[in-house]
């Protein structure tokens, strides 16, 4: 900048005007944009001068012109002239080679928007509107890929040795692979720690839901430090309970009542559904297991001839469906359905529902991971009345649940 041509009063008036109207002082046409450009270019020149020591100059290395590049910042885009050396060894630090985005804060904003479900197109448009900076979809993809090491680190992190209650359920998505849209199953494990706070223990991807894959998921939890799960809440997937007990033999398994009811209604004629539900309620709302079994017997007497498959299903699955009767009301309310993890899934789907088919398994994991990080920010308090619940669990499970008191 020519010091003789520098008009301080004009700069001050322009800066004050832009400051009052909320315009960026460093962005395009900003009052301080030339100063930032000069500062960065001067700093780069000084870095090169420092690197070109006497030895390098003796070997023939020297300055070799400048290259122009667009540097994107949270205040706009700057056209920067970066110096070069003849040997190509110059490694600037203030603005590194191939670095096109200066502010980490801008990258954090981009990752934040991506984590709230915005598409690359929407993010690019938003960045241009707010920061007067254009960023391509490929650059945005590279920025969000910085989340990948965090995802892998999170997936492999050590876990606590004991979880009081764990819900295991799956979500289904579409992923485009080799030009074809394929189904992906995302396995989620949501647990309650001894302090009563929620934690998503793991997130895994497979082509379909099955007990065999759940077995590998549970084994991974064990390898990451989980020694015991007191109560596991699951849907009615065949072989699921057996897979859990293979890895955690002492775990009490509770199958979801709501899933069982939904599956039953698929085989009940619409004209009978209202009456069937009325007769079914005394079974799962009974005060104790003996009363529930008595009511299940009455349900069978009335409906077995017409719907033998449904009644047989309740009888076959009764041991897994009736686990909750051995616990006090507060624990029953938590475990007799998978509503807790389904509520978590609803929050995730609010973000992912507009995505259609994901470009890869990792793009799916990236978004669910970021969404989970946002959701878990609210998991700062123990569950309601947890002090009573943990005391009851401690009495029931004895030495398996040692409290830090």
UniProtKB/TrEMBL annotation:
MF (Gene Ontology): DNA binding; transposase activity
Question: What InterPro entries does its record include?
Answer: Transposase_mutator
Span list, region Disordered: 50-69
Tree of life domain: Bacteria
GO terms classed as biological process: DNA transposition
UniProt keywords, alphabetically: DNA recombination, DNA-binding, Transposable element, Transposition
NCBIfam families noted in UniProt = transpos_IS256 (NF033543)
Could you tell me what this protein does?
Required for the transposition of the insertion element.
Question: What's the family?
Answer: Belongs to the transposase mutator family.
Q: What is this protein called?
A: Mutator family transposase
Species of the source: Arachidicoccus soli
């Amino acid at each position: 900048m020519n010091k003789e041509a520098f008009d301080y009063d004009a700069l001050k008036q322009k800066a004050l005007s832009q400051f009052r109207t909320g315009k960026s002082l460093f962005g395009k046409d900003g009052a301080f944009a030339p100063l930032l450009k000069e500062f960065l270019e001067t700093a780069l020149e000084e870095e090169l001068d420092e690197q070109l020591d006497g030895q390098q100059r003796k070997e023939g290395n020297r300055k070799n012109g400048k290259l122009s590049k667009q540097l994107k910042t949270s205040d706009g885009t700057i056209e920067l002239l970066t110096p070069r050396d003849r040997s190509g060894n110059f490694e600037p630090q203030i603005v590194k080679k191939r670095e096109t985005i200066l502010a980490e804060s801008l990258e954090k904003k981009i990752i934040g928007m991506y984590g709230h479900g915005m598409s690359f197109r929407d993010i690019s448009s938003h960045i241009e509107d707010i920061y007067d900076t254009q960023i391509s979809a490929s650059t945005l993809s590279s920025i969000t890929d910085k989340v990948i090491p965090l995802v892998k680190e999170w997936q492999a992190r050590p876990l606590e040795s004991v979880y009081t209650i764990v819900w295991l359920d799956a979500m289904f998505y579409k992923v485009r692979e080799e030009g074809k849209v394929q189904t992906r199953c995302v396995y989620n494990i949501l647990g309650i720690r001894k302090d009563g706070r929620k934690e998503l223990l793991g997130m895994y991807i497979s082509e379909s839901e099955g007990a065999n894959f759940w077995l590998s998921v549970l084994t991974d939890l064990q390898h990451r430090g989980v020694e015991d799960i007191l109560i596991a809440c699951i849907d009615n997937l065949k072989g699921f309970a057996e897979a859990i007990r293979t890895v955690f033999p002492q775990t009490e398994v509770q199958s979801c009542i709501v899933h069982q009811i939904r599956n039953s209604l698929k085989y009940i004629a619409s004209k009978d559904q209202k009456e069937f539900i009325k007769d079914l309620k005394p079974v799962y709302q009974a005060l104790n297991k003996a009363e529930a079994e008595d009511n299940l017997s009455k349900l069978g007497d009335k409906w077995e001839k017409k719907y033998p498959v449904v009644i047989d299903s309740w009888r076959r699955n009764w041991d897994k469906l009736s686990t909750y009767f051995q616990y006090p009301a507060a624990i029953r309310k938590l475990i007799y359905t998978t509503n807790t993890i389904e509520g978590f899934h609803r929050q995730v789907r609010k973000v992912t529902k507009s995505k259609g088919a994901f470009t890869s398994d990792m793009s799916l994991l990236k978004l669910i991971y970021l969404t989970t990080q946002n959701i878990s920010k609210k998991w700062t308090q123990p569950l309601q009345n947890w002090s009573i619940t943990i005391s009851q669990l401690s009495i029931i499970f004895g030495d398996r649940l040692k409290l830090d008191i």
